[in-house]
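hey m, so remember when u said the tokens were messed up on ur end? i reran from scratch. heres the input so u can diff it against urs
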Amino acid sequence: MAETAKPGIALKVPHRKRETDPDRLRWGTVSTIKAPLQAIARFAAYHLDLGAALVDIYLDEPDPQVVEFFAPHPRVRLTQCDDAYWQDKPERARSSHQLRQAFNASRAYRKSDLHWLTHIDVDEFLIAPRPMAEILAAVAPEAAFARVRPAELLAQPDPWRGPSHFKLTRRELGLTKAELVRIYPDYGAYVPEGFLGYTGGKNIARTGLPQIRLGIHAVLHKGQPITNFERLPEVHLGHAHAPDWTHFERHLKFRMNKGSYREKLRDRMRLRDVIDIVIEDSGTAGLRRFYDELNAATPELLERLAAHGMLLTASLDLDEKVARWFGDLP
């Protein structure tokens, strides 16, 4: 059943937008991506394998070779976001990567001939126990969008094939903060949900609704949150936010200054504050201990997560899917 909440607006869903036949339902992804070909191919192959009718990619860093590679594949559409692309667009829309993401996703939404569209990143993978078309066809007809909860990938030797371990949020399981501290003894009291990435999830929007802005974590109508949505408890968005220590350390400066850890006006104790304190107190060695407690898939952490119902294990098998859909990479 669709949920409603205030403040916001309940947006009416026309009957013609309510596709309930999974055999006819078409869904897809839209992303603004700055990544190497291998990462893009893994992302695209995974979601095509899951049943996406279209993987719509805006290349934030134009690359003719990437466009050429995907040219034979009609279900992958690439747009080069070069100076010519931005020439007739609002200047503000280009000013940050968050605004570029929302602008491109909203533009794709307005042009879409799909039934459902999700705005996700190259390091995110929808995890579902059955075809997404079946799940979306069963969404309450009055729901304008569906919300998917996050699952954060843990650091492990090779998460891209075989069993991949993810952690869930305590809120999803209805656990207390005290239980979170038992899972993460040193930092569970300070880091929201014990996550290094976002904890609010993302959305899959029903297309064809008027004046929609498809943001990173929100679906808005004329700037207002849409309140009639449905949660998809059997679907998670697997987020490879910090799949290993090297990746976490390499991206930390950007995330602290301009990315997901940047200062935000309504925040109190932010993850960046915790990281600042850890670095000030014990430098890189302390930061590594912080990372390992929260994100290393040790047998002890896996056992604690499983005991609290917070462990999700899935098989991504990304390179196998790339070979099946695209053949050998150059």
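this time it looks ok to me. DSSP finds eleven helices and 13 strands in the chain. if urs says something different then somethings off w ur setup not the seq
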